[in-house]
Amino acid sequence: MNAQEKESEHNVVLITGASSGFGEVTAALLATRGYRVFGTSRNLARNRPGGYDMLPLDVRADDSVRACVQGLLDRTGRLDVLISNAGYELAGAVEETSIEEAKEQFETNFFGTVRMVKASLPVMRKQGGGRIVLVSSLAGLLGVPFHSFYSASKFALEGYAEALRHEVKRFNIRVSLVEPSFFKTNLAGAARKSAETIREYAEMRERARQSFERSVQAGADPGLVASLVLCIIENRSPRLRYPVGKDAKRLPRIKALVPEAAFEAGVRRNFRLDG
Question: What is the pLDDT of residue 250?
Answer without folding.
Answer: 94
